[in-house]
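RECORD TYPE: inverse folding
INPUT: structure tokens
STRUCTURE:
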């Protein structure tokens, strides 16, 4: 399923009108992950597609409102992962994947590390994405800037953080790096293909998305 413009992907977790207002300038298509279709429709969104195992959506009852229906019956992946396996887009913005059930949230973060897609998940307070190999952001000085390793991480270089990440080793069962902050307005990191998430306040969505513009 190829999209040539950014996609808003709606999950079955907490989503409200404020989330949609935040992301509205940045997407051109709307896709739902299974039960996220009912959330999207309730918020007045028009669906291009609904993807998943269809155990929590009404796609079978009202197919005319759910866009193209992609039924993937296997149970070895989450609906979020099913969506990521089918969608091809320059950018996927995800709402409804953070907050709510903790097991769903952890599964979504795990999927960020495994996918080759460019994905930014937006929650009630924060946004999260996998750090690319080279990242440059412009943020206000003092912005909270957290990274979290989803595996063994070493060799990261950083510039513009109060506590540099250079030459440190991180892992989920050892050192992590949360609640860092920016010390300059220009931030640069190199992360050679490692499983490292970046977590920022969601008010910096626009600055974050500039990372992924070619």
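DESIGNED SEQUENCE:
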């Amino acid at each position: 399923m190829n999209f040539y413009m950014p996609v808003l992907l709606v999950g079955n977790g907490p989503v409200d009108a404020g989330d949609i207002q935040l992301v509205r300038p940045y997407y051109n298509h709307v896709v739902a992950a299974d039960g996220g279709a009912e959330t999207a429709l309730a918020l007045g969104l028009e669906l291009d597609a609904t993807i998943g195992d269809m155990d929590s959506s009404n796609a079978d009852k009202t197919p005319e409102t759910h866009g193209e229906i992609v039924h993937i019956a296997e149970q070895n992946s989450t609906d979020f992962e099913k969506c990521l396996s089918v969608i091809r887009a320059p950018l996927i913005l995800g709402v409804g994947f953070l907050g709510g059930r903790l097991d769903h949230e952890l599964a979504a973060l795990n999927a960020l590390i495994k996918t080759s897609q460019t994905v930014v998940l937006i929650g009630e307070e924060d946004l999260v994405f996998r750090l690319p190999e080279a990242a440059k952001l412009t943020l206000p000085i003092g912005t909270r800037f957290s990274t979290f390793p989803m595996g063994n991480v070493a060799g990261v270089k950083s510039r513009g953080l109060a506590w540099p990440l250079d030459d440190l080793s991180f892992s989920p069962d050892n050192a992590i790096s949360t609640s860092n902050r920016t010390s300059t307005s220009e931030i640069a990191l190199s992360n050679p293909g490692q499983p490292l998430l970046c977590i920022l306040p969601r008010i910096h969505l626009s600055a974050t998305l500039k990372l992924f513009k070619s």
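NOTES: The chain has two domains: 7-124, 134-212.
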